[in-house]
Structures are given as structure tokens and as C-alpha cells.
Amino acid sequence: MATRTTTQPSSHRTSHEMSDLTSAAAGARRISDARCVLFAYQEAGYACMDALLEAGAPIAALFTHKDSPGEEIWWRSCADLARAHAIPVYAPEKTGPKELELLRTLAPAVIYSVYYRSLLPAAILECARLGAYNLHGSLLPRYRGRAPVNWMIVNGERQGGVTLHHMVERADAGDIVAQRTVAIDDDDTALTLHRKIVRLGAALLREYHPQIIAGCAPRRAQDLSAGSYYGRRQPEDGRIDWSWPAGRIFNLVRAVTHPYPGAFGFVDGRKVLIWQARIASAFGEHGAPGTIIDRNADGAIEVAAGVGSLLIVRAQIENQVERDAADALGNCATMRLE
User: Fold this and answer.
1) Under CATH, which number does the domain 29-230 receive?
2) Which 3-state string (H, E, C) describes 68-120?
3) pLDDT tens-digit series, residues 70-88
4) What is the pTM of this model?
């Protein structure tokens, strides 16, 4: 008699499959039980808060900043996203006793800081029983401090990245959880590089939040002696020195072009903002630095640098409209950018 074989009904699961489902369910419960408080601003803050909401993380409160008058706002509003999910929003000028008392009442499991512009004191960091974490837009310990994306382009870096790390009172100095790298291309501006880093940062938080909640996230100390620290950039840092090599001027232009204040020089005593440029020549001498040496049919102007020359594509005389460089500078009495 032939032996009849039977197959396991699809409704039945193996012990291994049941274990996986149980673990997944337990992980989901841990995430939904672990209350978070966010200190977040700008597009990176929005993207990371959105990632946490998609993961089912309960966000008890958002601390953010009011937009500054006169600043070019190019990012989505963290406050708007929070209100859409009935999350309380606070925007104090600084964190003080009132905010500390509120945080102690909220008793968060985790605090996240994402592009928040103020350092958080130790008393606030200690309110989170599973730790306080910051997302920083560089490969720490390099480019600790302010405006890392702008500084990386100013300095001609070819690689950037993002770091998720523990917060301590010293800026960007805590132990590292994880990092991701990204290439910096010649045509990247601070804005395009920032957008790359935002995507990486949101993905990093989405990946490591469950591990943080479970208490099994990796952790390694930073060697601060091998890193670097940069301060806040000011609009006057955009002043072009035409005796610099063309490559250095090109990097400055793309580091502070829109939505930032722009690189600038002067002609006939008037401020000229340089919004877009290319390297015409990286080598040799092409005349006195700052001299306009050619006007192209496509509306660009070639200017001599200390080494090489720069092709200015888009420019703007202060208080006038932005135009092709030849149109913007066509009526200048002198042929030299100061």
C-alpha cells in the first residue's frame, strides 16, 4: 500500500516562524510603549519626526524654533507636522526650569535632537531613561559644531555623511551609535548636499530607533583629537578674495548660494552677489585677480583668480534682481571686481 504524505496546512506555522512573529510583535510593543520627546527644526527635523511617526513611536512633545524674520525658509515645518498629529509644540527662546519641569513630567524614554540650534543642558538630557541622541550632519568627529554642510563644501571635501550619537553637554562629542557616508559631487551646493544628508539621517534613525529602545544599539567613543570643530558662519564670511585659486572661490560660491546669503565682491563700490559659477581654468595666470577677462555669448563672465579663472554664470547687484552675469554687470564702469 502506498504511503500517503500530507502537507502542513498553510494556516499552521513552524515554531521558528512563530518565534519571529512573537519577536516582531514584542518589538512593535516596545516602540509603541517608548515615549519620545523631540528637539527638532528644519528639514532634517521634519524628516526624522516623520520617520519616527511612521515607525509607530509615540512623540509626547516637540520643542522647536520660531522661524527667524528675513531668513529664507526652504524647509517643511516641524511644528506643522506635530500639530497634524496632535503633538504639543513648544518654542522657547531657551530651555530653562519651566522646560525641565515639563520634561520630568513627560518622563520620556528617549530624547532626540535633530538640527535643534541650542545645546541642551545635562539636566534635560538626564530626563530620558534610555538616553538622549543627536543627529549631526557630518562624519564625527570631523566637522563638529555649526554649519557642517557649508563648511565641508567650502573646504572642498569629497565625502560627507551623517552621525547618530549620544548627547553630552559638549557639542557633538558623545559616543557614536552609527554613521552613513555620501559623496560630495562637483555640482553639489550646500542645499543639494543637505538634502542627501537628510535622507540618510531619516533612514539611520528609522533603522536604529528599535535598537535604542531595545537597549542593544552599538556604541563607540569618539576620538575628538582626530576631529575638527567649526563655528557658525556669518554672511560676511562670504566675501570673495580674488587672489584665491579659482577652485577655492568656486567652492565658496556653491557653499553659500541659495538659500544662504551668497558669496560676494564689489564693483564700482557696489556689492555684487555671485550665485552660480564654474571653474574656467584651474591653472595659470590670467591677469590681475578680479579682472573681467572675457564675456561669453551665453551670458557668463570670466574673471581672473590668483590661480586660474572663474566663470560667473549668475550674479546680482545688491538691491537689483538676479540675472545672467553679463546682464547684471553690463553697466559697470570698471572691469574689475574688488
Assistant:
1) 3.40.50.170
2) CCCCCCCCCCHHHHHHHCCCCEECCCCCCHHHHHHHHHHCCCEEEEECCCCCC
3) 788 999 999 999 999 999 9
4) 0.87
